Amino acid sequence: MSGTHRSVVLEIYPGDITALAVDAIVNAANEALRGGGGVDGAIHRAAGPELLEECKTLGGCPTGQAKATKGYRLPAGHVIHTVGPVWRGGDAGEPELLASCYRNSLALARDLAVRSIAFPAISTGVYGYPLASATEVAVMTVREQLSANPADLEQVLFCVFGEEAKAAYEAVLGP
């Protein structure tokens, strides 16, 4: 399933984000950038201890912001760490903060001149953001940023885990 936008291909990838040979993967990180559960822990384990050592030099990352590191042992050359919002019912600025994660990650991708990037479903795990709503924010924000700020990007992958997440992205991206 894919949709094309300004020669940038938006695709769903049902699999392990740590195995992707793209220029950058996005990490759904915590504010301390110290690794954790879910995608964050998997990325830290796959990248090796050097990733944590570099993260320690970055001074953390506020919610909605993004910071970049090398990929180390990952097939991806860079890891863009972004901190999604914890779901508090939708009235605490969660949609704006989540959109900011995607905007700031794409801005770093432009700075790094990456051609391919993979995003996990930011905030939909332990942070509790409803999957359908998070998917709409993700795809809408990426499309808006690609229109407003054409870059070197050729491919954006939405890396999903499980059939529910795959179906949510298919519903928003279309065939």
Strand content: 15-25%
Enumerate the strands of the largest sheet in spatial order, edge to edge or round the barrel: 1-2-7-6-3-5-4
Helix-strand string: EEEHHEEHEHEH
For the record, give the distance between the C-alpha atoms at the N and C termini, rounded to a whole number. 5 Å
Q: How many strands, what sense, and barrel or not for the largest sheet?
A: 7 strands, mixed
- Cα shape: globular
Low-confidence blocks of residues: 1-6
> Mean pLDDT, as a whole number?
93
How does the SSE layout of this entry go?
Blueprint: E1 2-5, E2 8-14, E3 24-28, H1 38-47, H2 49-56, E4 66-70, E5 78-82, H3 94-112, E6 116-119, H4 131-148, E7 155-160, H5 163-173
Parallel strand pairs: 2-7, 3-5, 3-6, 6-7
Antiparallel strand pairs: 1-2, 4-5
Helix pairs in contact: 3-4, 4-5
In short:
The chain has 175 residues and is α/β, with parallel strands linked by helices.
Q: How does this structure look, described?
A:
The protein is of the alpha/beta class and 175 residues long. It is built from 5 helices and 7 strands, in the order βββααββαβαβα. It has helices at 38-47, 49-56, 94-112, 131-148, 163-173, and strands at residues 2-5, 8-14, 24-28, 66-70, 78-82, 116-119, 155-160. A 7-stranded mixed β-sheet has the order 1-2-7-6-3-5-4, sandwiched between helices. Helix 3 (94-112) crosses helix 4 and helix 4 (131-148) crosses helix 5. 44% of the residues are buried.
